Amino acid sequence: MIGDKWTLLIARDLAAGPRRTMELHTGLFPISSRTLVARLRDMVKDKLVERTDYGGNPPHIEYELTERGRVLLPLVEALRVVGQTLDCNQCEDRKKHSGFYCEACPKNFPTPEREQYQRPAPVPRRRQDDSIVLL
User: Fold this and answer.
1) Quick count: other Cβ atoms within 10 Å of Cβ 6?
2) Is the entire prediction scored with pTM above 0.85?
3) Could you give the domains of the chain?
4) 58-111 confidence digits (pLDDT tens)
5) Bond preceding residue 58 cis, omega within 30 of 0
6) How far apart, in Å, are the Cα atoms of 120 and each of 8, 51, 74, 94, 125?
7) pLDDT at 126 over 90
8) Which of 7, 30, 63, 100 could form a disulfide with 119 if both were Cys (CB 3.0 to 4.6 A apart)?
């Protein structure tokens, strides 16, 4: 259940509140959308996450941690503290590669010696061309 890759990171990102699939996907680089959806389905089945379908076109689906899922958050926080204690450099590697820290990173919050980093706005997707070309 929690030993699966990405599960704790998904729980970390859902700690701030309900999220849509693409919001999670953006914050969990380099996870594939197929892997993310599979992991979310597993977490729903294990009752760690609740899936709410609001309908509409395009579909509006949100995921939220259940009470059972919130039990994971102290573990996520403990792992974050251990990473900081061991002076891991994953945060800097992520910023170098992606241009921003993950949302849960304490480096996102202002401190006297550091300005708050502003995450870049997501690039809008190009609309699919549904026109028919006649030759």
Assistant:
1) 18
2) no
3) 7-108 (1.10.10.10)
4) 889 999 999 999 999 999 999 888 877 776 666 677 677 767 666 666 666 554
5) yes
6) 24, 28, 29, 14, 15
7) no
8) 100
- Rounded CA-CA distance 113/98 in Å is 23
Structure token pair of residue 133 = 């070309």
In degrees, rounded to 5, the angle at the alpha carbon of residue 103 between the alpha carbons of residues 101 and 109 is: 80
Q: Which two tokens stand for residue 19?
A: 């999220």
Angle at which helices 7-14 and 33-45 cross, to 10°: 80
Query: Which has the closest alpha carbon to 104: 9, 31, 26?
Result: 9
* Residue type present at position 37: V
Helical axes 7-14 vs 73-85, angle rounded to 10° = 110
